[in-house]
Design brief:
single chain, 4-stranded parallel β-sheet, 43% helix, 12% strand, globular
Length: 299
């Protein structure tokens, strides 16, 4: 009995002296692109849940119990920011009752706050539609900005988990380097492309990065549905020119088809983000799909 007691005591002491296994950082990402980036940077050291799938408009979601549950257990909330999720994320954070991830804390990360934004300085009033005074929030369609965001996200993760800091920084650098390489190739691919009509003012980040003209928007002002008079004016302005029209699955097809038929253009449906649990490979493939559509009129 004494021998068994001594063995048990020795095992207990050894276990007490052993360092505790590092726990994964729990991350709640607002959108699938933010979830992809968090997972790529964090690798095996993070667990990521995504609150909004790519086939839903992140402007107009409602705070749901599933969102609050994800936030309640999170060490870090990763959002797009620039008021994209303003209609539901603050309410979800309040409902989650997790003070460590509230805006202004180290547990709250806004991608849009890490990079220069297009369209800054607008005034928020209903007559001008869905205008974000801080700037256009749709930074996730610019791979270069996503690379910059990856680096600052890695720094935030490293502050929270210094033991894996080197991994976070290395993964972010790898993403940024791939983005640079792809963008160089894509610029050559779309050289001479006549331009794109978008439904909403969002993929302008990608067009700007690739030096492709944006030829207009089906929405008369951001967030307001297309009107007949606006669509007819757009057709009149673009008549005799070349281009393509791109919409998301949740945007009305009939408006797009009207303009496409009047102009004799091709209309395409593309996704704004990777699928939930998508990888960096999926992200670059997604942007590659956009590039092929943009380049289609010059073939």
């Amino acid at each position: 009995m004494l021998k068994r007691a001594l063995i048990a005591s020795a095992l207990g002491a050894a276990l007490a002296a052993a360092p505790a296994a590092a726990q994964a950082l729990n991350i709640a990402a607002t959108t699938s692109n933010m979830g992809m980036l968090a997972k790529h940077v964090g690798g095996d050291h993070v667990e990521v849940s995504t609150m909004a799938p790519p086939d839903r408009d992140a402007h107009y979601l409602e705070a749901r119990p599933s969102m609050m549950s994800a936030i309640r257990g999170a060490d870090l909330v990763v959002s797009v920011g620039a008021e994209l999720e303003e209609g539901w994320l603050p309410a979800a954070i309040r409902g989650a009752n997790n003070p460590g991830v509230r805006a202004g804390t180290s547990g709250y990360f806004e991608a849009g706050a890490q990079v220069d934004l297009l369209g800054t300085g607008g005034e928020a009033d209903r007559s001008r539609g869905d205008v974000h005074p801080a700037g256009n929030p749709h930074v996730y369609l610019d791979p270069i900005r996503m690379g910059e965001i990856a680096k600052t996200l890695a720094a935030r993760m490293a502050e929270m988990d210094s033991a894996n800091a080197d991994t976070y920084h290395a993964n972010a650098e790898e993403f940024a380097e791939r983005a640079d390489e792809y963008v160089d190739e894509w610029r050559e691919r779309v050289d001479g492309a006549p331009g794109v009509v978008l439904y909403h003012d969002d993929a302008t980040y990608l067009l700007d990065r690739l030096d492709v003209p944006d030829l207009g928007f089906l929405e008369p002002v951001p967030g307001n549905p297309p009107t007949g008079s606006h669509l007819r004016a757009l057709v009149s302005e673009l008549e005799g020119k070349d281009g393509v029209i791109i919409r998301y699955p949740y945007q009305r097809e009939d408006h797009v088809n009207f303009v496409a038929e009047q102009l004799g253009w091709e209309a395409y449906e593309l996704m704004p983000g990777v699928q939930v649990d998508g990888t960096a490979d999926d992200y670059f493939e997604l942007i590659g799909d956009w590039v092929e559509v943009i380049a289609s009129p010059i073939e």
